[in-house]
Amino acid sequence: MDLLVKNARLVDPARGVDTVTNVVIRAGKIRALGDGSVSDLPIFDATGLIVAPGFFDIHVHLREPGTEEAETIATGGNAAVAGGFTAVAPMPNTKPSNDNPSITHYILSEARRSSPARIFPIGAITKEQKGETLAEIGEMFEAGVVGISDDGKPVMDAQLFRRALEYSQMFDIPVIQHCEDLHLSKGGVMHEGVYSTRLGLKGIPAAAEETMVSRDLILAEMTGGKYHVAHLSTRRSVEMVRAAKVRGLRISAEVTPHHFTLTDAAVAEYDTNAKMNPPLRTADDVDAVLDGIRDGTIDAIASDHAPHHINLKMLEFDLAPFGITGLETAVGLALTKLQLPIGRLIELFSTNAQKIMRVAPWGLFEGSEADLTVLDLNRSWTFDVNKSRSLSRNSPFHGWQMKGKAVGTIVGGKVVYEDRAG
Amino acid sequence: MTRKHLLGIQDLDREEILEILDTAESFQEVSTRPIKKVPTLRGKTIINLFFEASTRTRTSFEIAGKRLSADVVNVSASTSSVSKGETLIDTAKTLDAMAADCVVIRHSSSGAPNTLARLTKASIINAGDGAHEHPTQALLDAFTIRMRKGRLDDLKVAIIGDVAHSRVARSNVHLLTKFGTHVWLCSTPTLMPQGVQHMVCENRHFLHTTNSMDEAVRAADVIMMLRVQFERMNESFFPSIREYFRYFGLSRRRVEQAKPDVIIMHPGPMNRGVEIATDVADGPYSVILDQVAAGVAVRMSILYLLLGG
Ligand SMILES: [Zn+2]
Ligand SMILES: [Zn+2]
């Protein structure tokens, strides 16, 4: 696809780019930056807008194959581009799970057929995500996975996790852990603290996450593996990751928007849209996560988009499944809440996210895939969950007013999403 | 009372609690009449919706409703599950279609009454939800305490046993601390929930915790025993029933450390020989049967105040 993006403020922190100019796109790739005199191309007017390397959500659940009533690769891909993401990395906890190359192939061919966003699948660490034996990591890598994780579950067996950190180094892919000691969290449905006590709900202590982060950091140091902490949520986790980075470990960490915008107080009326895993934590944990975002301890923001059919989310709180949708609110929440320099925000959503996963990098340089996210920092808008492109409606952010929005998404030079004001 | 639902003690204020207790006192007289019935709620439909078996509480609500001349329907339901395809929202729609005026709900999930209250038009009364609240139990406990002690303030109440999993403990903590009574929660550290000191929003200094039963019982005006569930042993909250009774069982020796006019309460059903010795349960300090009797009057009062106004 060909396109001329005109008068954009181009920001690419990985290449030191921050300038107002034009982008010439031919055959899906960036041909030139600067020259706006070409006249044969369709024009995307980006006056007053920021154009960044395409945003990459490295932690989503697309539910296909297996639970297509909640989300499909097509609907999830559509929700992604509406949220400003040109690419997403779906976790392998589908049914069956993405633990072998045939499922990886299926996901990728379905993505090519139906998704406007690029899909970079994550493979399972263990067969059927059972935590017993390694999945065919090499074959999945050959098929196209960009990382491995048993997300939804942790790998409890320390020896097996050590093997995963060692074996994966052959392919230089990250091993992504959902940190949760299942003995400590057993039966829990929300953060263990004052609110769980008052509400009479079984708690998941912060220690369930922290003991596993601590164990994993020791194993990462021992093996030299490429370790990534998914959806980190507590103060002590932030502190341990910070200390490990100072020691020079090859590790990275992501955080979700709900873990820096909400606390366990949101559960007070037994709202199942405030039920997720890891659970919403305390105000002190939110402060620590915000510090971690500001000082670089946290590398990326990922939505952990976890659609569930409304029938399941209308169950009693302790019976309802964990998880909320997030693709269409992540960028708005980050722009509204974080007040970061724009370059730092783009690192969190794009350039760092690309570095964590094993993908060929894209950005604002000649020859790059023309995958671009267009931001309007001044757009005031209200999230309406009923207009979501996801098949599911389980968001706690319905009715939230935000300032700043992804207003355009370009994948391979094609405008796949555009939201012009007024 | 202007309230539509009774979901928990936490949101009630002192005046509302006193109104319920005072009204219950006037209804107590009805139970002594040869014809124990008043026409107050004639034409109203009350549905007892019990997702957990509880003969005692269900019967108490049923008698209370019938003494007020309401139509009472008992529905035993199983906990909603995906496989069964029945959810709380389906139940709520059914109840609305039947035009129920009031639904008394007992459920193993904390918050199920709150959810139901959002979904139906009926008044919802929480008859015990998970480990959250059991407000009518706390109100009948308060009724019993006030009857025996003449007041609800400035007492020492020891609540002993499985605090972590007890809705009775939570509702009583909210109620008693609102009146300025000192509550001592006594349990093993494994059965004492996180952040319990901050459970109440106000009057925090009336709430105390201890692992020593002797400390809890010493100078207590009221001893409230909680039922211990045997499956907790398998989850290693404590090593054995025998050892549990050694530290948290109410034996006659322990009762003797309390005040001579101490009263002993238990929400029932009791595990005799586990949390309470038989001679104590049936002994002179026990007011356990008074609690049962108070249950009917207090529930009549609640039904009347929610539906009769
Ligand atoms: Zn996870
Ligand atoms: Zn996840």
Mind explaining what this structure looks like?
The complex is a heterodimer of chains A (about 425) and B (about 300). With about 425 residues, chain A is of the alpha/beta class. Chain A is about 30% helix and about 20% strand. Chain A has 13 helices and 18 strands. In chain A, strands 1, 2, 3, 4, 5, 16, 17 and 18 form an 8-stranded mixed beta sheet that branches. Chain A has a 5-stranded parallel beta sheet with strand order 9-10-13-14-15. Chain A has a 3-stranded parallel beta sheet with strand order 6-7-8. In chain A, helix 2 runs parallel beside helix 3, helix 4 packs across helix 7 and helix 8 runs parallel beside helix 10. Chain B contains 12 helices and 9 strands. Chain B is an alpha/beta fold. In chain B, about 50% of the residues are buried. In chain B, the strands form 2 sheets. Chain B has a 5-stranded parallel beta sheet. The chains are: A alpha/beta (about 425), B alpha/beta (about 300). Chains A and B meet through helix 6 of A and helix 4 of B. The site of one zinc ion has 6 residues of chain A, from loops.
